[in-house]
Amino acid sequence: MTARRLQQVRVPVLWNRETVPGIFHLGLAVEDAFDRARPGQFVMVRFSQGVAPLLRRPFSIHRRTDDGGRVTGIELLYKVVGEGTRAMSRLGTGDRVDVLGPLGNGFTVGAGVKRVALAGGGIGVAPLVFLAETLVAEGFDPSAIEAFLGAGTEDDLLCADRFAAMGMSVHLTTDDGSAGLQCLVTHPLEMVLAQSPPDLICACGPMAMLACVAGLAEKFKIDAQVSIEALMACGLGACLGCAVAQSAKGAGFLHACLDGPVFDAQRLDLSGRFLR
């Protein structure tokens, strides 16, 4: 379990930039409230004082900003998909939002892990940047990390430059062939697993992609951790809205907010049978 120190803070927006159409990068001045946040954890954000949107929205922590070892902010990467994120996209510098977190359990990279593969589909790349930057800051060899990024088009590919700037190999795929290989992101991942397998795969993206990653991990006998997205209203385990079925090896359901959102890939039934 990840060490936690839950905070609820009302903080100012530092910036809210549209990086590509429909994708926004939000900076929040949280100071030291999130000094124990770990890659893969998330926050619940409420950005309206009115009735709508009523509920908080969950977002993976994309990056953490430090100044001389002191945490000064967190960054969120999000896609506008509905009423809540449309309202969020209208936030400006100086506006204040209510943030609850850090929540959930993040990625765990053990001392024996020497090589890591990061697989991100679309906006699923968001927590993987935090993971990569944290590993490098803690002394992990960046040349031993490979990033596999997939999206629908070149415009939808996110953060490739960040991984490359850290000295990591980056593999790109798009559905339409506008950048990288025209295939699923799991295709080049499978090629690398067959030729030079890493010790660990960390993935975040659409459920079908995560199911494929889990299958590859089982095929090549490699540990894999997946960060899942699930509908949630509270982030604290009270609403039970983020239930996900365990694999045949387990019984019943787990909850993304408390047991995840990062899970051992073999622990889950990734066929898409979620409670809604």
Structure description:
It is a single chain. The protein is an alpha/beta fold. It has 2 domains: 7-103, Elongation Factor Tu (Ef-tu), domain 3; 116-229, Nucleotide-binding domain of ferredoxin-NADP reductase (FNR) module (Rossmann fold, 3-Layer(aba) Sandwich). It has 5 helices and 16 strands. The chain has a 7-stranded antiparallel sheet. Helix 4 (186-195) runs parallel beside helix 5 (207-220). The protein is globular and about 50 Å long.
| Outline | globular
Order of neighbouring strands in the sheet with most strands: 4-3-7-1-2-6-5
CATH-defined topology of the largest domain: Rossmann fold
Radius of gyration: 18 Å
* Percentage of residues in helical conformation: 10-25%
User: Structural class given helices, strands, pairing?
Assistant: alpha/beta
At the fourth level of CATH, the homologous superfamily of the largest domain is Nucleotide-binding domain of ferredoxin-NADP reductase (FNR) module
Task: Name the descriptors.
276 residues; Elongation Factor Tu (Ef-tu), domain 3; Rossmann fold; seven-stranded antiparallel sheet; globular
Kindly summarize this structure in a few lines.
This protein has helices spanning 83-89, 126-137, 160-165, 186-195, 207-220; strands spanning 7-20, 23-28, 42-46, 57-60, 63-67, 70-79, 96-103, 116-121, 145-151, 169-174, 181-182, 200-204, 223-227, 243-245, 253-255, 262-264. The protein is an alpha/beta fold and 276 residues long.
